[in-house]
Write a structure and sequence with these properties.
The protein has 5 helices and 12 strands. The protein is an alpha+beta fold and about 230 residues long.
Length: about 230
């Protein structure tokens, strides 16, 4: 499961010509994303284009009663298993409503245990300097203040048969990987009906990835607070 990635930078996104209402001077997020952090999101825009937003990594379901429950739940909802996403209480409503989102990123990090201890690896989509991970977004409204909180989860698929991803995590753990999308598939995911979305999830396990050890862990920055 992915807990840490390098999001696209504002300059990365300014090079895309399909983002509605792009305002680079007002786009701010940390250089590294962990659960609870702000990160850039791409949603469906006008005419098949893209719309930029930011959201909290770790989905806050709309049924959360207060900020305490929202904080507790979102610590466990940063990844969603594609096999059960349509059934789980935290995800089934945004899945039914096709609240698709793309989290643009440069790379992500996973622990490799081949040496008998966890070694941090940096992983990316081969030949794609900028790619995206498919996910779901949600809007929670604080019942006490009326504040609207945008949040998201990233979808995962089984990776037991993937050449690189099966090397990650402890030997006894099931291998999982994000649903990674090259840039030319972003609009396809965002505009997909449920059947096409399921097809893209099935394609994810065949993506060609490359990676290398990156043991120096970055200093964690300030997470978003409730």
């Amino acid at each position: 499961m992915c807990t840490n990635y390098t999001p696209a930078t504002p300059s990365d996104l300014s090079g895309l010509d399909r983002i509605d209402g792009w305002q680079p001077l007002t786009a701010h997020w940390p250089a590294e994303t962990f659960p609870g952090y702000a990160a850039p999101l791409l949603l469906a825009g006008e005419g098949g284009g893209l719309r930029l937003d930011t959201g909290r990594y770790g989905l806050v379901p709309r049924w959360c009663r207060d900020r305490r429950q929202a904080e507790t739940v979102s610590r466990r909802t940063y990844n969603a298993r594609s096999e059960t996403v349509a059934e789980k209480p935290s995800y089934r409503q945004p899945w039914r409503e096709k609240r698709w989102v793309v989290a643009p990123m440069r790379d992500f990090f996973e622990p490799c245990w081949e040496t008998g201890r966890a070694v941090r690896w940096r992983i990316r989509l081969a030949d794609e300097p900028l790619f995206g991970a498919a996910g779901l977004h949600e809007t929670w409204i604080d019942p006490h203040t009326g504040e609207r909180v945008t949040s998201f989860t990233l979808l995962t698929v089984n990776a037991d048969g993937h050449g690189l991803m099966r090397r990650m995590h402890r030997p006894e753990d099931e291998k999982r990987m994000l649903v990674l999308l090259p840039a030319h598939d972003w609009s396809r995911w965002l505009q997909a009906d449920t059947a096409e979305a399921l097809g893209l999830l099935q394609e994810a396990g065949s993506r060609c990835l490359e990676g290398e050890p990156a043991p120096a862990r970055p200093e964690r920055q300030q997470a978003l607070g409730f």
